[in-house]
Amino acid sequence: MVRLALTRLSAFVLTLFAASVVLFLAINVIPGSAAQSALGLEATPQAIARFEASRGLDRPLIVQYFDWLAKAANGDFGTSFQSAVPVGPELLKRLPVTLELALLAFLVANLIAFPLGTIAAARHRKGADRVFSTLASFLGAIPNFWLATLLVMVFSVWLRWLPPGGYVPISEDPGQNLKLMILPALSLGVVSSALLLRIMRASMLEVLSRDYIRTAKAKGASERMTIWRHSLRNASIPYINVAAVELGFLFGSVVVIEDIFQLPGVGSLVLVGIINRDYPVLLASALTITVFVLLANLIVDICVGLLDPRRSKGSQA
């Protein structure tokens, strides 16, 4: 198990390095001038040249990258081109918002998908299975920004039950924090639950068709015992793998949702960086989201190794 964890950790570091290279190159080749965006359309060529020279933008990309990497390794992500504010502290201030949103949405998705997928498999080709399968197809076809708009219209504008946006830290007012986070979490979690529901259903059906399940039924095991004691653990392994990918998807999806609900998270910082061509802000915030996507997969790989010892032994062979 230790060897599996070390292998996954090495892959994490290499993948993160490759992702940083791709992000750095992609950000530096997008159309638009960071200098002109910061100085304005009336900026002279001399002013643009001074701006680029002062921030090292006139050097070769490979030199810029390794200079940025050396500083980032020490926690220095540079200074915003627009506001001249250090990016690192701003990220740390916004990170709890994005983490809370992604984890709440992940909780919503699993609270919907895990039980409904299990029930659908247990009632295969019956009414519950048809209803939940149709529900999964419907939810999977809804864009999360459309659902977010609909939720605001219903619960904020018409019913006036929940505020339409804003953020209060949970340390200041837990009740108000929850009210403000319910709609964003539902917007992301409900849509993500569609895929997880289908995966849980398919995984449970595959496990329920195995010989040892038929043997357990032949020995007189009840349907409830067959599902909860003999099936769920093995059915959960592929489900957890896909759930990790969905957690990464949730981190990547916060950009639009945070903007809709005016949440001061990392996702909205990505949007600010894109609009302003603010390379330090965009690179640091996009890489932060990438780190959490990779961390989610790393943790799940290790958890799956614990759930399925054969996988761990196979990795050490």
Report on the architecture of this protein.
It is a single chain. The protein is mostly helical and 317 residues long. It has a domain at 95-264: Orthogonal Bundle (MetI-like fold), CATH 1.10.3720. The chain is 79% helix and 0% strand. It contains 13 helices and no strands. Helix 11 packs antiparallel against helix 12. The longest helix has 38 residues, at 223-260. The mean pLDDT is 85.
Quick tags:
MetI-like fold, 317 residues, 79% helix, mainly alpha
Corresponding CATH superfamily of the domain at 95-264:
MetI-like
What is the number of E strands? 0
Indicate the structural class: mainly alpha
The level 1 CATH classification of the domain at 95-264 is Mainly Alpha
Strand content: under 5%
Helix content: over 70%
Low-confidence stretches: none
How much is the average pLDDT? 85
Tertiary shape: globular
Order of helices and strands: HHHHHHHHHHHHH
**What's the Cα radius of gyration?**
24 Å
Write the CATH architecture name of the domain at 95-264: Orthogonal Bundle
Q: Can you summarize the main beta sheet? A: none
Cα separation of the termini: 12 Å
CATH topology annotation of the domain at 95-264: MetI-like fold
Q: Helical stretch count?
A: 13
Provide the fold topology.
Blueprint: H1 2-29, H2 34-39, H3 45-54, H4 61-73, H5 87-122, H6 127-140, H7 144-158, H8 174-208, H9 211-218, H10 223-260, H11 266-276, H12 279-307, H13 309-316
Helix pairs in contact: 1-12, 5-6, 5-8, 5-10, 6-8, 7-8, 7-10, 8-10, 10-11, 10-12, 11-12, 12-13
